[in-house]
Amino acid sequence: ALLTMKATVIATFFGVFLTCAYTAKEATKKTKKAKLYVPQIDCDVKAGKIINPEFIAKCPPGCQDVKYRVYGTDIYASFSSVCNAAIHSGIIDNTGGKILVQKVSGHSGYRGSFSNGVRSLSLPRWRESFLVSEGKPRKGVTYPSTLEYSSSKSTAVKSGNVHVPTGNAVRKEHQTTPVPTPATQMATTTPTPTTTTTDPSTTVLLTTTTPAAARTTAAAAKTRPGLHRVRDMAFRGTSTSASNRNILRHDTGDQHQESVATFQRAAGSPAHLAMETDSWKPGLSLFDTGFSSKEELNPKPLEPISQGNPNCKVDLSFLMDGSWSIGKRRFQLQKRFLGNMAQALGIGSAGPLMGIVQYGDEPSTEFNLKTYTNSKDLRNAIEKIQQKGGLSNVGKALSFVNKNFFLDANGNRGGAPNVVVVMVDGWPTDRVEEASRLARESGINIFFVTVEAAAQSEKQNVIEPNFVDKVLMCRTSGFYSINVPSWFSLHKVVQPLVKRVCDTDRLACSKTCLNSADIGFVIDGSSSVGTGNFRTLLQFVANISKEFEISDTDTRIGAVQYTYEQRLEFSFDKHSTKQDVLNAIKRISYWSGGTSTGAAISYASEQLFSKSKPNKRKIMILITDGRSYDDVSVPAMAAHQNGVIAYSVGVAWAAPDELEAIASDPAKEHSFFVDEFDNLYRYVNQLIQNICTEFNSQPRN
């Protein structure tokens, strides 16, 4: 009996043990974290569009595209495409993949560069930024399985309403203080990102239902113009010439001290960014950089689409002076002049298209190229434009137009020359030379109409006294500048200006380094290269080619492969689109053999460059990995004498003396050397830059 009792106790104990073990196992299963679901985002999604302060997302394949803009290199502005920024940083490639995005405060400067096939652009400052890294969860951070996006419509927040976002949104009380002055912003530093980062894009507006709070809100709204004036005075105080200019210039019969009806959102407002349009009023400075959401407003024309004047097919932007110095009366004269220009040009889909950007402290698009397609509607729209006020920051306006106006989405037609006409009352309050140079290099023809030059007492305050001479280096004959003694005589230059902007044969600046060349690649296919390295070499060729504007009338691409023998892979007239060229490069098959570089240069001269168009610059880019079996100096000299600009790129065992002999003068700017094929990509940007620098140094009158 004793033994039976002992056995029963042991069995009972064992049963309890198994039960406890099973229960613990089930509890562990329940507490085990669910598998993280990673949401996919589209290639064009901007970081500012997503509200979450930190998230993991998956980028689809095929995002590497120039139309998805990237601003910055190490830290990116929220205006950037998230996926393209990740490709640029090297976190993922064009096949896509998971990325971790962390929002951080904005910077006072973003450095642009070319990396991993994506060109990022520089940016002066931005209110919100983000970092990208590998898509691995950080310890202790919960990531959303569904991303929250800011609304594409903005609604005014009324007293008594409380908006509380779901998920990981971070709340912050609405700030009624004005935006910090540029001096304050420049001192901003980037904090180290943590999981508690308070991000502008996640901020919400909180109001109370108490009458006292409502009265406070109303009082704050009334004082906003005053706040703007204080900010404007603080900004002007940074420049003696700017402040003196506004004191010295007076408009007879007009008092223009009225406040600017501008609502500046605080740095902690919701992330409505570039997608927001509805609630912003004319004259609003949405971003510190001058980007404006107005570009996305495209009202339907009231009149039928006009064909326009077919003898004047240009894409035209007028930079309208909205500074306080011009005064109300002269601003009305300027609007009348622009209306007369619209009528005289004959606006239409087959003729000239016209948009207007108004500038003061910051530029903003009043309407773009495709907003109005007939002169009547355009004139009516011009009449409704309200004056922005502020300084005359022409340089900032030119930079804005260069980066944002002439885009396909805004009606740019590609085949039509891009023309900018800058209206200036007196002189600019910032520097314009560098902005003008960059605009010209982008193919923009810049005309200046200057009215009422600086008075004798004001000349000491002018930043660039001879700014017109500096910015019109494309043509020095006076073709691109018109000086008018008074706003009251502005109507007299309507017809002369129409004649000039429509004279497409004389718009020399519309030819750029990217759209006016025949580029022939001479590719080493010898045995020493090898199959894998040959594919890398072709990728280098493709990366260079895709930076150019390719068509029958723009840049054309051809290619020759050589060993002991030579083979024409495709001629200049074979492919007329960028995609066709890139596909043709991809299809080139590796040949293998010896290295007769001299014979290859002669072959390229005969088979490619002898058939180049007279108005095209002939550019040869030769890539080789070894010393040639034959002489290269004589064939290279013959090519140079026939107008071929030669660039040589040597890899591994290439001979430096031969690279210099092949290259055009000066050799140090036309020859490059890398130790291995995998490092070729480092010279894509430098090579293109040298091509453009050389192009822009040549007279084109």
UniProtKB/TrEMBL annotation:
Origin superkingdom: Eukaryota
GO cellular component: extracellular region; interstitial matrix
GO biological process, one term: extracellular matrix organization
PROSITE patterns: LCCL, VWFA
Subcellular compartments: Secreted
UniProt-listed InterPro entries: ECM_Assembly_Org, LCCL, LCCL_sf, VWF_A, vWFA_dom_sf
Entry-linked CDD domains: vWA_collagen
Domain (VWFA): residue spans on this chain: 315-497, 518-691
Biased composition (Low complexity): 176-202
SUPFAM superfamilies from the UniProt entry: LCCL domain (SSF69848), vWA-like (SSF53300)
Role this protein plays: Plays a role in the control of cell shape and motility in the trabecular meshwork.
Protein name, as recorded: Cochlin
Taxonomic lineage of the native organism: Eukaryota, Metazoa, Chordata, Craniata, Vertebrata
